[in-house]
């Protein structure tokens, strides 16, 4: 017996253009449009070129590789490099930058004893849930020993 | 996702052999069972499989050490032969060791969870911490590519890369592909199937229906063909069907950690794994801080605390069941114990140590003549003797014992109708009551009737007991009665004939004495065999340890009563000796039915089995059909035998189908048992597993026992 694995049934992935999903095209278009609007004040018609480049860049950076958008992969790679620098060469430029950005230097060295420490032991049974009887027939008249959560108050000792 | 307050329970699961389910119906049943368990997942879960290189080095070293330490030249020579065999096995194969585990985030009690896992996977499960992915400290390295390397001296510790699954392709999965083929790459790796979320049924239906609705809206506005959306809608509908049929919807992610001794090999292995799985699912090699974080998938850290971008995939229970395929790939397990055979198909040697317990573990062996029982038995006795120094007593009625006698130059006790005498009055038990019962059992077998259950029979039992008591009382101390002075049958008859204080009782005593005398004295059929002092030395003769012995009964001229009496007396002597010490010993009784068909001797065997067990004497009872061990009282012997070695049972399959003792065997197990070829057998070890093995014997055993 076998099973045919299905596509991602909880994610929409509609057809776009030239193999690029519609949502990425939309993001590229919006990025290019925004660039055009802003850059036109500064660089005039050159803004059209900038907008096109921005659109292409947005399409490239949102392209998925390894299940992650390229920008995210590059970001993690950069964070990794900065983290290594912050841990190993804290005085270097990249090390100082890593420290400034508060990179997780604790991830550079992994201690098996910490990462793979066995889980805490079994949770102790709550004895207050139990009534204990010395003899079986005691169970009939509900006079068993009961565990209480804390010491009883108002008991005289004299 | 796992709530912080929900504790994690971790379990180790003994992998089983998928070959024992390898038919269409077999794997279907397996998938259905796994899926049923997955449907009820109480919270997040994570399945682990570690595969590490394994070798027979420990076994080879142990055998070499034993060869150096032993004073017994014969044993040393055997050990060197076994060492050569293990070296040969090692040279021919790349062994891996697998270990499977499961982490469950739930409030349920571990015992209940383990019980559920045991019944779902039909394999031993114990609550235990998971083994670490690596030992000591590892650091992140960027060059020549992102990987983890040991800090300080490696000391044999490998480099490590982690691959994370991010996309499942539309492909057909089964228990053999793709995960089993990853394991078959024979590289050290660890595989994790993380299940961070199991949707509540209605939530799953809502989520999938929403996606369908969205696609439908999209399609209604699209001109032309959008096959991708159409396919997605179909997939969503199939998912809904499966959910409505009882499946759950799970979020799943696969992670694989690959190990290698150097970066070049690591890179090659990473590519091998990625390429092997590419038609089914895609893997990315983790980089930077993602690499460090993804290591936590191999621990009991909840997924939500691992904080890597989620690339989970929704699958239904029946799909997820196939991702637990590594459970069906039992590989080289422990090398503790002796070689019990080689797994059929998987071709790894199976070792088992049945002496771990303080008590001995009895075995029952069944199989049709000619299928390799005796050959395997000779090999097994030889291995236990050579490797663990455990001597044996072999009782057999066909004269096969000659081979093992010649191989080891052992004393061969051939009991013959003409030359051997076994006195029923020999003292075999420490107390008078037990001794009387034993001797009466012998006489019951001779008489062919039981001295109980009727008034006359009870009187006879009492009178015979009284006669024996009078005779033994004459010696004072029972233990002082050595075989050369033990009373003879004729003396018993003389004393018996004079008993009774009333005439009718005197008559009963005389009749019984005459009946016994007619069979056991004078010219009676068993006079030569029973009426005399025992001619076989069963005693310890002052020895601290008794070496291996072989008792053959082929010269008893096919007389079933004589053979049964010989079995009983030899076993009694062994039983008596076993009380002196707790040194392990194997007592193998071939064709045990010859003893068991006599009710009085069956009682003795049942009692002896219990005594042997507590005295670390392993009883191996062997016969052709399992059915004889399941009838009436014989079942008590069977139930004392947690290890069962089953050769071809083509003619006696009904007991396996009908008897409750074999309910743990599925249809495929039964098909295998029904069609086992020569030298193949099923080793069923209670609470440990079922193995389908072939006797791939060392060359030395083939040379010695090949003519068996």
Q: How many individual helices of chain B? A: 25
Structure class of chain A: mainly alpha
Give the domain tally of chain B: 4
CATH superfamily of the largest domain in chain B, called what? P-loop containing nucleotide triphosphate hydrolases
Question: What is the molecular shape of chain A?
Answer: elongated
What order do the strands of the largest sheet of chain B run in, or round the barrel if closed?
A: 14-13-23-22-21-15-20-19-16-18-17
Average pLDDT value of chain B? 89
CA-based gyration radius of chain B: 33 Å
Q: What class would the helix/strand composition of chain B place it in? A: alpha+beta
CATH architecture of the largest domain in chain B: 3-Layer(aba) Sandwich
Largest sheet of chain A: 2 strands, antiparallel
Summarize the structure.
Chain A has helices at residues 22-43, 46-61, 70-88, 93-100, 112-115, and strands at 3-4, 64-65, 68-69, 109-111, 131-132, 145-146. Chain A is mainly α and 158 residues long. Chain A folds into two domains: 15-62, no CATH class; 69-137, no CATH class.
Structural features, described:
The complex is a heterodimer of chains A (158) and B (708). Chain A is mostly helical and 158 residues long. Chain A has two domains: 15-62, no CATH class; 69-137, no CATH class. Chain A has five helices and six strands. Chain A has helices at residues 22-43, 46-61, 70-88, 93-100, 112-115; strands at residues 3-4, 64-65, 68-69, 109-111, 131-132, 145-146. In chain A, the strands form two sheets. In chain A, strands 2-3 form a two-stranded antiparallel sheet. Chain A has a two-stranded antiparallel ribbon with strand order 5-6. In chain A, α1 packs antiparallel against α2 (46-61) and α3 (70-88) packs across α4 (93-100). In chain A, 19% of the residues are buried. The model of chain A has no long low-confidence stretch (mean pLDDT 82). In chain B, β22 (680-685) and β23 (689-694) form a beta hairpin. Chain B contains 25 helices and 23 strands. Chain B has 708 residues and is of the alpha+beta class. In chain B, the strands form three sheets. An eleven-stranded mixed β-sheet of chain B has the order 14-13-23-22-21-15-20-19-16-18-17, sandwiched between helices. In chain B, strands 1, 2, 3, 4, 7, 9, 10, 11 and 12 form a nine-stranded antiparallel β-sheet that branches.
